[in-house]
Amino acid sequence: MPRKALITGITGQDGSYLAEHLLALGYEVHGLIRRVALEEPERRLSRIQHLAGRIQLHAASLESYPSIFHVIKRVDFDELYHLAAQSFVAESFADGFSTMNSNINGTHYVLAALRELRPACRFYFAGSSEMFGTVQASPQNESTPFHPRSPYGISKVAGFHLSTNYREAHGMFCCNGILFNHTGPRRGFEFVTRKITRGAARIKLGLDRELRLGNLDARRDWGHAADYVRAMHLMLQQPEPADFVIATGISHSVRQFCQLAFGELDLDYREFVKIDPQFYRPAEVDLLVGDASKAHRLLGWQPTCTFAELAREMVAADLETLGKTPILAGTG
Ligand code: G4F
After folding, report:
1. 128 is catalytic
2. Taking a C-beta distance cutoff of 8 angstroms, is the pair 126, 83 a contact?
């Protein structure tokens, strides 16, 4: 019998990579999606279009306990990966209420339904390095205290504690991944890495003349999303549930990412990037860098993609999707 998994947020960057990874491991994969996604499949299901026929999709809303309860009752699965969330930090300042509602109540609904219907199911919660916020120590590990700086970060701290509480109070197998920034060619356009690679490609192709960004000095620990979903799966295969930091251990600035991405196209970012105060955040997280030694030791997990490879892959993918032949630096 194949193992079975349910993924919330299967239409997103991580959900799509995780679905591919689990299918390759022989899993039967189910996804929970919003009904509206079924009405606009070309746009909303674009990241999982190539998996059509190999995964089963079920409509439910994170805002509706009955809809989640219904899917969890009807579908049979052994592992649940809860990735669905409002994940854009800047948006959480604009609409903190929606972020809290989806990210906290949505997580609580999933956990409560699991407890009722499938208490033996293994549960993964997508925690975030944004929970560290104003960092109390560097690099950050599983013992570093949280000091979130945004409604998004606060909602993830609450989800983390909810998941931990179901583990402690009800004996459920709940694991929290504390994932540092992870990106790749499937990243949403609003996040800074994709905004930069897409923007640089558009400038190279003559479609735009400038790219407007906010704080170029923020430092993040960026890895490839395809590497990070492997860690999610490994967490749920351990003998005991636990929490794990997943990171590369190396931080870079937004400016360095600009340098690399524009450099791939033989462009100097300083000629094209304009600072626009609208992209500054009311409270910034200046530096994140993770210590994933627990994951190395217990999960045997290692990242495989470097920062430069990440930028190169993303720029090449954006050039391709813009319908042009990639002409990369050093290739003539
Ligand atoms: O790409 P970002 O929007 O990602 P952020 O805020 O670090 O959050 C991402 O990583 C978290 C893990 O740590 C996830 F939990 C979360 O869901 C998300 O995936 O911004 C990165 C940095 C920030 O410091 C921001 O101020 O880039 C800076 N930045 C500068 N200009 C910009 C821009 N960010 C965006 N989105 N757009 C800009 O124009």
Report:
1. yes
2. yes
The span from the CA of 262 to the CA of 182, in Å, is: 20
Q: What's the length of the chain?
A: 332
Residue 44 contacts by C-beta under 8 Å, 6 or more apart in sequence? Answer: 11, 33, 34, 36, 37
pLDDT 10s digit of each residue in the chain, 332 long?
899 999 999 999 999 999 999 999 999 999 999 988 888 888 889 999 999 999 999 999 999 999 999 999 999 999 999 999 999 999 999 999 999 999 999 999 999 999 999 999 999 999 999 999 999 999 999 999 999 999 999 999 999 999 999 999 999 999 999 999 999 999 999 999 999 999 999 999 999 999 999 999 999 999 999 999 999 999 999 999 999 999 999 999 999 999 999 999 999 999 999 999 999 999 999 999 999 999 999 999 999 999 999 999 999 999 999 975 545 554 43
Pocket test for ligand 1, best of 220, 246, 289 (most atoms within 8 A of CB): 220
For the chain, list the domains and their CATH numbers.
Answer: 4-182+222-246 (3.40.50.720)
Kindly tell me the sign of the dihedral angle through the C-alpha atoms of 128, 99, 80, 54. Answer: negative
Task: Check: CB of residue 310 under 8 Å from CB of residue 227.
Answer: no
CA 33 to the chain's CA centroid = 16
Rounded to an integer, what distance in angstroms lies between the CA atom of residue 58 and that of residue 28?
14
**What's the 276 CA to ligand 1 centre distance in angstroms?**
15
Q: Show the ligand 1 pocket: residues with CB < 6 angstroms.
A: 87, 89-90, 128-130, 180-181, 190-193, 195, 213-215, 218, 220, 254, 279, 281, 284, 288
CA distance linking residue 138 with residue 136, whole number of Å: 7
Q: Are 304 and 185 in contact (CB under 8 A)?
A: no
Q: How far apart are CA 332 and CA 329, in angstroms?
A: 7
Q: At what angle do helices 307-321 and 192-204 cross, to 10 degrees?
A: 50
Instruction: Report the DSSP beta bridge partners of residue 220.
Output: 252
